[in-house]
Amino acid sequence: MKKVIRIFSILALLALGWFMVKELTRGNKDLKEVTADYIFETPALIAAFEKDSALASKQYVDKIISVSGNVKTIDAHDNPVVIILGAPGKMSSVLFSMDSTYAEEYKNIREGDQVRLKGVCTGGESQELFGTDIKFNRAVVENLK
Amino acid sequence: MINKISSLLFMLFLVLQAESQEKFYTKTGKIIFFSEAALEDIKGSNRTAAVVLDPKTGALDFSVLIKGFEFEKAVMQEHFNTNYVESDKFPKATFEGNIVNNLAVLYGRDGSYSGIVRGKLTLHGVTRDVETTGTIKITGSIIETSARFHLLLTEFGIKIPSAVKNKISNKILVRVECRMEGVE
Q: Which of A39, A85, A140, B161 is deepest in the core (most CB within 10 A)?
């Protein structure tokens, strides 16, 4: 009996150790493999945050959202690259901090292109100078129209 | 002689043009924090900080969404948001300050300047005075700024769980790098 208990104890410890190592080294989800929780056009997402920022934050922050729209600016001066969707001449925008694992897929995107990007929503903020900005991390290209 | 006058007029035009920019801004400022620790080094970076610089007054403001910090490991990111900075409760960090020696920065002329920045940093709902020295580089109508400073987590009411208290540093190195363009 003691031998059985000892074997089970060792197995339980090994399982716990395996779980802990796996948990501590767990990377972020690859968003290419994940279905979006919500799908938006750029103006509609901006409007949702402009209408009620608190409600929109509650609903969309930490969610995976697919957004389509016009590429307003690309900031490739640093890593990760940031692709900004929005209407030309308007300050409000949707910012995607891109997942560099998939750099090949967005390296040919240019200002003025129509794209669909998917990322984790990290929140939105409104400022007098900047308008309303909604921000995403670990973004990937869904498909080019 | 005419060439010299033309050159002077052109330089004057550049100076006036740069000085006519009311404010400089970016929505893609980069903020990195780094903590060296016995248990594990922790590095988080955020690429979507909003930064505004008023060259006339030297006023420098930035805001950053806490959930925008990315970590290599998911567990670090979860602990950072949940156990340390409580990002659901305090979603934003802000800085409101000034370049103290703003008069020494010639915004209309290309060059690299040393700037002393002083202001109030709000993080985790706590506001503290911060002062650091950074670099301000001007190239045409682009202003690049970089600065680094240290923070103590305890000064911002951020508690390190007792189980890892001796393994995670209370001292955090923060790096801020921005590339701003003018807006009239």
A: A85
- ipTM (interface pTM): 0.86
pTM of this structure = 0.87
The total number of structural domains in chain B stands at: 1
CATH number at residue B23: 2.40.128.110
Answer for the pair B71, B81: CB distance below 8 angstroms, yes or no. Answer: no
Which range, of A89-103, B3-17, B145-159, averages the lowest pLDDT? Answer: B3-17
Q: Enumerate residues 72 to 91 of chain B having a beta carbon within 8 A of any beta carbon in chain A.
A: 72-75, 77, 91
Longest dimension (CA), chain B: 76
Does A93 touch chain B if contact means CB atoms closer than 8 Å? yes
pLDDT in tens, A86-134: 999 999 999 999 999 999 999 999 999 999 999 999 999 998 888 999 9
Of residues A60, A58, A71, A70, the one with CA closest to residue A36: A60
**Domains along chain A?**
31-144 (2.40.50.140)
